[in-house]
Every structure is written in C-alpha cells, then in structure tokens.
C-alpha cells in the first residue's frame, strides 16, 4: 500500500537544490560591484540634416554586446561604466567613437564618408573624389585582389569590373593574358591597354606582386584616358602600390601552398575504338586480332601520362611604416609554380621598395624600385598536348628497358617531348622610378619624375635526336635586351574660390625613349647532347641580330571646374610626336571634355533624401590614339645576310614597303553614364553607354608581286565598338556580427566594321572582315549533313536536292517535295571527285556543280554577346566566405583541335570516340559525321560549321573561406593579427564546349576565336596563412 504524505508547506529542498542556491547566492555578491558600475545610455543618431538614422550599429569598444537604432534613430544600450567608449558605424557613414563619461543621454551626428561615391580614385596625374569624376572609371580594391590568391595582376582583375575582358593565353605557368577594355579597336595595331604604376609608364606588370597593390583604377572612356594621348586608345590601367601606415612598423608574412590538377579531360579513343576506326576505314577488311600482340593489347591514356598533380608554393614578406616625414614599404616574394604537364614550371622572385620622404614642408622626394627574376620551362604545346590527343593509344611510350620511344608512324611521343625538349626562359626585369615635388603655394605643386626600366631575356631551346623524324638534333640561343626611360614635369593646381567655385588644373611635358637589341644563333647536329651550348653544333644557321628604337615627346594639360560640387566640368588635351611616323604625320592631337551634374544636391530632390544619397549624370567625348606599330613601318628598311648573288651575301630591301604617309589610329568616343547611391551607401549603381569609333585602322595590305614587295602598312578604315555596362554593389545584410556584400557587373559590346579601303573585304584564311558586319566572322563551308547513299548526291537544275527512293533495297528513282521526279539529275563535285554516300553535304552557295572556295560564307561570330562577374562575400564574426563567378555568353569558337582529330586521319591520327562510333559506315546511316577514309574524312574542309562550337560558359572562378584569430589570442602571441584560409580556383565550369576550355584570348582581331589546342587550365585547391606583426 502506497503511503501519501500531505504537507501544507513547501517541499523540503534536495541537496542539489541547496548547492545551486549557495552558488548563485555567492555569485550575486561577487557581481554587486559590477552592477554598481553599469548604467544605461540612450540617445539618438542623426545625419548632418538632423534626420534620424535607422540601422546604425552601436557597439562597446573592446567589449561585447551591442544594439542598433530604430526607425527614428533612437537607441538604448547597457555600458560597463563611465570609461566605456561607444562605436557608431554603418555602411555609408564615417565610423565615430564617443566616450560615455557621465552621460546617460547622447545625441550623435554621423557624416557621410564611406559612400562608394565619396572614395578617392587615382586619375591621370592626380586624384579625384569619385563623386567628382565625370568620366567612366572602375576601381578594384586591395581587398578584392586579396580574395583571389592570384599569381599576377591580370589574374586578380578578371571579372572585377564591367567592360574589362581578360583571358589567359595559356594555362602554363608564367603565361600571359590578353586584356581588352570595351572591345577591340584595332586590326593589327597593339590592342592592350596602357599600364601606369605609381605614375610610371612602361613598368612590367608581370613583375608586380598582387599582394603589393593598394588599388587599381581602369580608365575606359576618352575623357579619362585622353591625357595619355597616343597610348590610351585601348584604355588605361592605373595601379597604385601600398605605402606604410603611421605608427609602429608593420611586418606581414604570407604563405600559400596548393595542389592542382587537369580540370577537364578530352574524351579519347582506347585501343578497341582504334580498331573499330581501322575496320571502318578498311571497309571491314582483315585487321590484327592477335590479343597477344603488344600493339593489340597496349592501351595508353596519354593525358594521364602527361599530366600530374602540381604544387604551387608562395611566400611573401613585407615591411612598412610611417612617421611625420618618412613613409616606407618594402616587400620580397618567391613563387614556385609547377605546371600540370610534366616538366613544365615557373619560378619567380619579386621585390619592391617604396619610399616617400618629406625633406621640408614644401619639398618631397620619393622613389619606387621594382625588380623580378623569372625562370621557366615552356612546354611545346603542339608537340605534347595535340600529339597526346592524336596519337593511337597502342603506340609505344617506353621500351621494355625503360627508355623513351621516339617518333612512331609519324606521331611524336608526347611524354618524350615533355621530358626531353628544353625550352627555358630566364627573364630579369628592373624598374627604378624617382620623383621630386615642390609645393610652391598651398594650391600649386610642381612634380618632376624620371623612370628607367631594363629587361633582359635569355631563351635557350634544344631538341634531341630522339624527338626528330630525321634523326637530327637542333638548338638555339636567343638574347634580348630592352631599356626604356621616361621623364615628366608637370604642375598641379587646386583652388577653391569663395566656397562655391573649385578650380583644378594640370600642365606638363614628357619625353621617352625605347631601345631594344637582340641576337639569335642556332645550329644542328650537336656533337654531344650533354652539352647544348652553341659552340658544339656541326652546322650553324645564319645568325640573326636586330635593333629597334623609338622616341616620343609630349605636352599635356587638364582643366577642371566645379560649382557648389553640383555642376562639374573637365577637359584634357595632349599633343604627342613619335619617331614611328613620317615627318608629315609625326604629331597627333588628342582632346577631350566631360561634364557632370550631381542632381541629388538640387533642392527639388529633398523628397528622395531618405533613400538617395548621391546621384550624378555624366557625359563625355574625346579623342585618343594608338601608336602600337613597328618602329620602322614608315621608313624603308633592308635585310642583311639572307640574299645571295653570285655566291656573295648582300643587302636587299625588306619585304614590307615603308609608308611615310602612315598616320595614327584615332579613337573618338562618346560616353553617357549615371552614378547612384542609396540607403547610406548600402546600394550603389553605375551604368555607362558608349559609342567608340576608331578611324585610320593600321593594316598590312598585300602588294602585287610585280612591285617586288609583299606588303605595306596603310590606314584603311574604321571600327565601331558600341556597348552598355553596369555594376551593382550592395549590402543586403549589414550588422554587428554578420554582413553580406554582393557585387555584380555586366557588359555588352558589339564591334562592327564601319568602313574599309575601297569597300574590299579582308579574307584572312578562315575569317572574313567586311563593311557593315561584326568583327570576328568565321568564313567557311556550311555543313548540311551526310549523304546517306551514293544516289543522295542528286539535284535538279535549280540545285534543289532530290530524295532517292529504294524498293526492296534497290534504287527506284527520285522524289522532290514528296512527288515523283523525272527531270534531269545533277551531281556535285569537289576536288575533282563526285560526292558519294558518307561524304559531307555542303551548302551550294553559288548554285553550280562544284563545291569550292566560292561556296564559303560567313558562319557565325567569335565575339561573346555579354560577359559578367558576380562576387559575394559573407562575414560572420571572425569567419569570412567569398566566391566569384565569371560568365561569358554567346560567340563561337573554331575547335581546331577537334578538326585536326577528325579531318586528318592520315599519319595515324586517332579521332575522338564519338566520331569513331557515329561516323557513317554503310548506306542508309543517318549521322553528322562523314565516313573515315585512309586519305582523311569524307571530302572534309578545314573550316566548316561542324567545327564551330558554342563558347558560352559559367565558371566558379574562386571560393575562399577565411578565419581571423581573435585579438585576445594574437595579442598574447605578440601579433597584430593572424588569418588562415582555404581556397579553390576554377572549381566548376558549365559549358558545352568539347575541347579543354572555351576561355581563350582574342589577340588577333582578324583571326578571332581559334583554339589550337592550348595548355589546359588547372583546377586548384590550397591553403594559406597571413601573419601580421
């Protein structure tokens, strides 16, 4: 029986409850002193116009806890005592610290100072607030660069700004990039932008460590770039490197290591598929079926044999500091970058030293020293990659004794090519820039600078006998020495008059000189392959020496005016003279003007003040030039050593006829833009529309044979680049612990040929350039399918294709549009042969009986329709996650790698598995691939529509996860900060392109979009640590 005890009082506490009570009671006494010191502070946060600000973050400096303002700008927060300091911060406003003291109520006013439109940007020969800029300028910050783990500057810039198209020329270590700003504005002149580093031109940007960069400005329109005159038609990139910060010296140590692999393998035929190909080619004849035969069993995956898991290691050390009169920054970095193809590598050491010294209150001296030393082994891409894809899988790579096999059946051994061929480069580069500035008046400053650059390149190449089908070895030794100097002197004027009028100006002169000297010697039949210096070959080729130089002088100026910060005007002018042109065209003149209206400052916009912080409309027009031609294209030149008469070497005119009437390319550009900032800088929007026309295009025109010359450089026509670009930068979430920043940029550009000399189209092998059409049109044969039967090659007199009819497998006449046809039957021929079943059906453009060059037509265009970049960064307390996506949409690529696989079946080339399986094999087959024959693919042409592929792609460019150690930990370790991170580059690519990578460079405007089988891009995973002392 259960006993129930009833009590009128509270139940007796258990031992556990007593213990908890004692602990809490004791703790409450310990907390009394603290409670006595804490107090509540409340108040209001307003802007300069007295309007309450919503969402302002208030935190306790050096402590925990925080709050934010409500819709009226009011807040309430508990502080630990009178010594506390409150920190008020928000996107779009200057952060403010307020000591609490005895206050219990506060009224805080925040000023706008962090708005994206309020930042200072670097422009030609000066700086401007972004809100005062009237041209089209995009900026990239050090933080954006840091998120990339980039090897070089251009790698860090890709996808970061609208109107900027950057493509890696090759995936090999040390490879360069092609850079295009607002399309291609030249046919054969230089298309790269002008690079300015800390005010110096001619600096090798490959030698700049991305970790040393403070900011990058991209000047895209003529109003921004015209002050650089004849070198600015393709845009200007201004790079500002880091300086020291005031306070104690800061030491930064960075280390990174990564592993990378081939990101995408091309489908490759195995031995069984190779036998199927041979069976189709032979019509089902006798083939080797002996499974014990080595050539039957061998099944090499050349891509696996040729590639590896590569390692990248990078270490950088920098030291910087500043005092009242001295600012200094120095860095030294080392990069070891293995290529994913065996025996390819690059190693580079980069250093920098920046110093600014204020000798007196008016006199300042500074210099920038940059140097780099790079060594690399460049794999011969054609002899390795293309051979690896084309070579039959059953060909021997190694002999049983482990030695490498050589050329077999006309196919090179790609592994032997990679391991034994030497193609080494050594590049030593240095840049020394000095300036002196003198402040005559508070508003007037004189700057005189001088920049000297020197670059030495040594290229050593050697190919052993094993790699040659003729059993000869050969080698060459090439050396180049380049020096460049430039000096400038200019006055800067900056004056505010009466509080409403602001006047700025620049006037200056410059002169520069470039000198290049090179030599090359080569030979064959080296006595020994152990010594590859050029004193051991038995046969020497004629040595080659060369020397080029040019000189230019310039005068330039800029005038700017602002009224009440609302109405803005800027104008630039530059006059350049270059020795590259004839005397009658030596000078070029490049003016520009721009205006801006900050309509957000107008009284009638007060209604939008709560939402719109800044609003500005811009318009500009200007002329820029392009002098990127050969040093001696305007004069008669001669060739030595390669012309013989009666057994005596002589001198003869060069094949290119000098044209003294050669003139500058001129680019005239109109730009209209708008800049907007909303919600205290949490959302910004910039858009620009431009129309850019380049006249007097430089082109090497062919000459008739009877002239005795091959070509002449002339000015022949014009190109129009027209487009729209915009960028959105927003903070969807921004509070004390968590923030999310997203930046999206997008660009549309269309390059069209406006005029050509005499209206005559330019046909450059597989491309056609003609008036009224887009630049980059492919020119070839349009494929309509494959003839199912021999009888399928049948047409009426109007060249309409007839349909053969078979009854019980026997040919029984033709039909046309479903009706019986009894008229005449015509057959198409090509290369002297009647087309048969299994041959390609080509569009008969000219409606005759022969498929030949006259049937070529424009097949599509290489230019992408648009490009875009999306960057996201999420920050939560000490963690940060960022990722970048790059998109290129539209445009075609000529997949020449696949064309060589399927269109060249002689010399033991092995096509891809899809072709082998689906190629026409017997009458009646319906397929896109023609019959394989011993002399090639069925009547194939070099460039046809079957080899043009959609080049669209979406790429997850970069992902990085970062953790910053808490300050209480780093302070114990005697450090200012420490960050660790993991990252991945080129992680995913969505594309339908067959070959390795749809992202290729557009270096040749007349032959855009050809993929010759380049070194493939790698997928990279890595980790790193940054330590700050």
Automatic annotation (TrEMBL):
GO biological process, one term: siderophore transmembrane transport
Molecular function GO terms recorded: siderophore uptake transmembrane transporter activity
Domain called TonB-dependent receptor-like beta-barrel: residue spans: 397-823
Boundaries of every TonB-dependent receptor plug domain copy: 130-236
Main location: membrane
Keyword Signal: yes
Membrane topology type: Multi-pass membrane protein
Gene Ontology annotations for the cellular component aspect, listed alphabetically: cell outer membrane
InterPro entries: Beta-barrel_TonB (IPR000531), Beta-barrel_TonB_sf (IPR036942), CarboxyPept-like_regulatory (IPR008969), Plug_dom (IPR012910), Plug_dom_sf (IPR037066), TonB-dep_OMP_SusC/RagA (IPR023996), TonB-dep_OMP_SusC/RagA_CS (IPR023997), TonB-dep_rcpt-like (IPR039426)
Pfam family, one: Plug
Compartment(s) of residence: Cell outer membrane
Keywords: Cell outer membrane, Membrane, Receptor, Signal, TonB box, Transmembrane, Transmembrane beta strand, Transport
Family the entry assigns: Belongs to the TonB-dependent receptor family.
Full protein name: SusC/RagA family TonB-linked outer membrane protein
Protein species of origin: Niastella populi
């Amino acid at each position: 029986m259960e006993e129930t005890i009833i009590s009128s009082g509270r139940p007796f506490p258990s031992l556990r409850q007593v213990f908890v009570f004692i602990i809490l009671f004791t703790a409450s006494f310990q907390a009394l002193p603290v409670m006595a010191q804490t107090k509540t502070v409340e108040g209001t946060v307003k802007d300069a116009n007295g309007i309450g600000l919503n969402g302002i973050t208030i935190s306790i400096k050096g402590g925990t806890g925080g709050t934010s303002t409500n819709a009226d700008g009011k807040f309430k927060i508990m502080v630990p005592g009178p010594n506390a300091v409150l920190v008020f911060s928000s996107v779009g406003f200057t952060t403010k610290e307020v000591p609490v003291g005895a206050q219990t109520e506060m009224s805080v006013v925040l000023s706008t100072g962090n708005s994206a439109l309020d930042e200072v940007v670097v422009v030609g020969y000066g700086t401007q607030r972004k809100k005062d800029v009237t041209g089209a300028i995009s900026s990239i910050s050090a933080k954006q660069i840091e998120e990339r783990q980039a090897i070089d500057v251009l790698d860090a810039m890709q996808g970061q700004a609208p109107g900027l198209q950057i493509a890696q020329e090759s995936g090999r270590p040390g490879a360069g990039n092609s850079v295009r700003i607002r399309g291609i504005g030249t046919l054969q002149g230089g298309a790269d932008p002008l690079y300015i580093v800390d005010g110096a031109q001619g600096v090798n940007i490959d030698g700049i460590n991305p970790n040393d960069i403070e900011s990058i400005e991209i000047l895209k329109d003529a109003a921004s770039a015209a002050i650089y005159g004849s070198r600015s038609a393709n845009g200007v990139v201004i790079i500002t490197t880091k300086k020291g910060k005031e306070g104690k010296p800061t030491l930064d140590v960075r280390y990174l290591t990564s592993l990378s692999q081939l990101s995408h393998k091309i489908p490759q035929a195995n031995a069984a598929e190779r036998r199927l190909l041979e069976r189709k080619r032979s019509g089902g004849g006798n083939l080797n079926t002996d499974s014990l035969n080595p050539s039957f069993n061998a099944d090499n995956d050349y891509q696996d044999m040729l590639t590896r898991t590569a390692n990248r290691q990078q270490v950088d050390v920098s030291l910087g500091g500043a005092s009242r009169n001295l600012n200094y920054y120095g860095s030294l970095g080392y990069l070891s970058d293995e290529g994913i193809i065996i025996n390819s590598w690059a190693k580079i050491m980069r250093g920098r030293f920046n110093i600014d010294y204020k000798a007196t209150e008016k006199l300042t001296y500074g210099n920038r020293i940059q140097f780099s030393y790079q060594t690399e082994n460049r794999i011969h891409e054609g002899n390795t990659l293309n051979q690896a894809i084309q070579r039959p899988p059953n060909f021997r790579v190694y002999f049983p004794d482990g030695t490498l096999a050589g050329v077999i059946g006309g196919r090179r051994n790609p592994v032997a090519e990679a391991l034994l061929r030497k193609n080494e480069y050594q590049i030593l580069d240095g840049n020394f820039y000095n300036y002196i500035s003198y402040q005559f008046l508070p508003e007037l400053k004189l700057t005189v600078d001088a920049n000297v650059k020197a670059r030495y390149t040594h290229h050593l190449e050697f190919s052993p006998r094993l790699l040659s089908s003729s059993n000869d070895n050969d080698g060459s030794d090439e050396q180049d020495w380049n020096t460049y100097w430039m000096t400038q002197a200019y006055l800067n004027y900056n004056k505010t008059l009466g509080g409403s009028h602001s006047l700025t100006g620049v006037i200056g002169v410059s002169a520069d000189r470039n000198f290049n000297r090179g030599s090359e010697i080569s030979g064959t039949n080296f006595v020994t392959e152990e010594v590859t210096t050029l004193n051991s070959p038995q046969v020497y080729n004629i040595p080659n020496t060369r020397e080029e130089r040019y000189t230019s002088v310039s005068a330039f100026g800029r005038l700017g005016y602002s009224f009440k910060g609302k109405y803005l005007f800027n104008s630039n002018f530059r006059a350049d003279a270059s020795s590259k042109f004839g005397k009658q065209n030596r000078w070029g003149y490049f003016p520009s003007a721009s205006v801006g209206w900050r309509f957000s400052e107008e009284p009638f916009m007060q209604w939008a003040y709560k939402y719109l912080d800044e609003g500005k409309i811009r318009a500009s027009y200007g002329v820029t030039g392009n002098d990127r031609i050969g040093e001696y294209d305007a004069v008669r030149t001669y060739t030595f050593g390669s012309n013989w008469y009666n057994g005596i070497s002589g001198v003869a005119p060069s094949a290119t006829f000098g044209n003294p009437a050669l003139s500058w390319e001129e680019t005239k550009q109109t730009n209209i833009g708008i800049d907007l900032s909303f919600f205290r800088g949490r959302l910004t929007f910039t858009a620009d529309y431009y129309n850019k026309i380049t006249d007097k295009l430089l082109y090497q025109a062919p000459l008739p044979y009877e002239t005795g010359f091959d070509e002449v450089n002339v000015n022949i026509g014009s190109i129009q680049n027209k487009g729209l670009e915009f960028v959105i930068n927003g903070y969807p979430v921004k509070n004390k612990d968590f923030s999310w920043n997203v930046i999206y940029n997008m660009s549309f550009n269309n390059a069209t040929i406006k005029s050509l000399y005499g209206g005559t189209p330019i046909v450059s092998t597989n491309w056609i350039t003609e008036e009224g059409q887009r630049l980059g049109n492919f020119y070839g044969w349009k494929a309509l399918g494959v003839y199912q039967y021999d009888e399928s090659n049948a047409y009426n007199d109007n060249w309409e294709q007839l349909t053969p009819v078979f009854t019980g497998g026997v040919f029984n006449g033709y039909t046309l549009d479903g009706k019986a046809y009894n008229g005449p039957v015509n057959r198409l021929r090509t290369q002297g042969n009647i087309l048969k079943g299994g041959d390609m059906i080509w569009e008969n453009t000219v409606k005759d009986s022969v498929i030949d060059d006259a049937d070529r037509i424009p097949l599509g265009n290489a230019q992408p329709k648009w490009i875009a970049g999306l960057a996201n960064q999420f920050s939560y307390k000490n963690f940060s996650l960022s990722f970048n996506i790059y998109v290129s949409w539209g445009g075609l690529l000529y997949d020449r790698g696949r064309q060589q696989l399927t269109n060249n079946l002689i010399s033991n080339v092995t096509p891809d598995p899809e072709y082998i399986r689906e190629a026409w094999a017997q009458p009646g087959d319906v397929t896109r691939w023609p019959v394989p024959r011993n002399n090639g693919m069925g009547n194939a042409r070099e460039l046809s529509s079957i080899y043009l592929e959609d080049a669209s792609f979406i790429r997850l460019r970069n992902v990085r996860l970062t953790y910053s150690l808490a300050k209480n930990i780093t302070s114990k370790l005697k450090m200012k900060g420490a960050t660790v991170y993991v990252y991945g580059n080129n992680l995913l690519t969505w594309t339908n392109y067959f070959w390795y990578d749809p992202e290729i460079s557009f270096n040749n405007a007349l032959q855009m979009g050809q993929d010759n089988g380049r070194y493939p891009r790698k997928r990279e995973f890595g980790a790193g640590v940054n330590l700050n002392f």
